[in-house]
Specification:
Distance between the termini: 124 Å
Strand content: 5-15%
Helix content: 40-55%
Number of helices: 10
Structural class: alpha/beta
Order of helices and strands: HHHHHHHEHEEHEEH
């Protein structure tokens, strides 16, 4: 009956069936069925490559540090092992560094020449003629400032009897009074008098309130606003007092 049922199939079809040609094998051999085929996987070269971080750009400061380090290393190598090659390598790096510095200096000067706001010599001349003119202009400005300051401000001068520097400073301040008409209140820390300021007042605690640390000491004071600005300690010449008053009253910090 089995032969009759198989008869309708072509002979060549049976010849190509693996189970038919290997008829001794089968389920009765208790073989495990073949595993199911694995799904196709992408070849390794088709996998997406892991993203590598982009290298950070080298900064100018890092490049400069590397240049300095290379020069120092070449110098040390040339000193410790002064072969012609090592010395030549160091000299070549030194020449490169000097040329770079010269290029910077030249460009720095060119930029200053083209930008007066960046050129210190434009505001404060360094040539002899320019220096003379600037001094004359500054002197005239200081004179005008002192005359204006004298209208609303005065100087408080602290001195002591056994202080020779105090007597010299008193003489300078007397000349300032005569030149600009500014008022000076002399205060004696020890109750002594001064030949330049016979109407000097004894200290009544004002020195402590103004933070006086020693003598001679000078402060510019506005009686109306009670603003107090220290002019300095020690012997200060007249032109320096004029310059300090001009800077303290007319100029913000950082401006000359």
């Amino acid at each position: 009956m089995l032969l009759l049922n198989l008869a309708p199939y072509p002979a060549n079809a049976w010849a190509t069936d693996a189970w038919y040609s290997d008829k001794e094998r089968g389920w009765f051999w208790k073989e495990a069925p073949p595993p199911p085929p694995k799904p196709p996987t992408q070849p390794p070269d088709a996998l997406p490559a892991a993203a590598t971080p982009a290298p950070k750009p080298v900064t100018a400061a890092q490049e400069m540090a590397a240049l300095k380090a290379g020069l120092e290393e070449a110098k040390a190598e040339a000193i410790l092992r002064p072969t012609p090659a090592n010395v030549a390598h160091y000299l070549a790096l030194q020449e490169r560094t000097m040329n770079q510095a010269m290029l910077f200096t030249d460009m720095w000067q060119r930029v200053r020449w083209a930008n007066p706001a960046l050129d210190y010599a434009f505001v404060h001349p360094t040539a002899a003629g320019g220096v003379r003119i600037e001094r004359e202009m500054t002197r005239e400005e200081q004179k005008n400032v002192l005359n204006a300051v004298a209208q609303d401000n005065g100087i408080v001068f602290f001195f002591k009897r056994d202080c020779p520097y105090c007597q010299e400073q008193a003489r300078i301040l007397q000349a300032l009074v005569q030149t600009h008409g500014i008022s000076v209140l002399a205060v004696s820390l020890d109750g002594a008098s001064s030949p330049y300021f016979p109407a000097a007042k004894p200290d009544n605690g004002i020195a402590a309130r103004m933070g006086v640390q020693d003598a001679p000491a000078m402060f510019i004071v506005n009686p109306d606003t009670q603003e107090t600005l220290p002019l300095g300690y020690g012997v200060v010449p007249m032109d320096e007092i004029e310059s300090r008053i001009r800077r303290l009253v007319m100029m913000p910090p950082g401006v000359y």
